[in-house]
Amino acid sequence: MLCPVCGEDNNRIIKNRKRYESNSAIRKRLCLECDKVFYTEEKLTKKYGKNK
Ligand SMILES: [Zn+2]
């Protein structure tokens, strides 16, 4: 995940919060390049299917 401030890919997850009501996860990330904190959200986007 690229930092929205400096555009670098060098960051670390410092907090992971699950939101069960929307089946998603919020991640708090710290950019190791510019020392800024930002959040990303992970969601389920594909419907269930067979594992072929
Ligand atoms: Zn950055």
Question: How does this model look, in words?
Answer:
- This protein is mostly beta strands.
- It has a domain of 32 residues.
- The chain has no helices and 3 strands.
- A 3-stranded antiparallel β-sheet has the order 1-2-3, with no helix packed on it.
- Bound molecules: zinc ion (ZN).
- The site of zinc ion has 8 residues, from loops.
Could you give the distance between the termini? 29 Å
Radius of gyration, rounded?
Answer: 14 Å
Name the shape in a single word: elongated
Poorly predicted segments:
none
Strand tally: 3
Bound molecules: zinc ion
- Helical content stands at under 10%
What is the average of the pLDDT values?
93
Give, in spatial order, the strands making up the sheet with the most strands. 1-2-3
Sheet bearing the most strands, described?
Answer: 3 strands, antiparallel
Order of helices and strands: EEE
Task: Map the helices and strands.
Layout: E1 11-19, E2 24-31, E3 37-43
Antiparallel strand pairs: 1-2, 2-3
The structure holds zinc ion (ZN).
The site of zinc ion (ZN) has 8 residues, from loops.
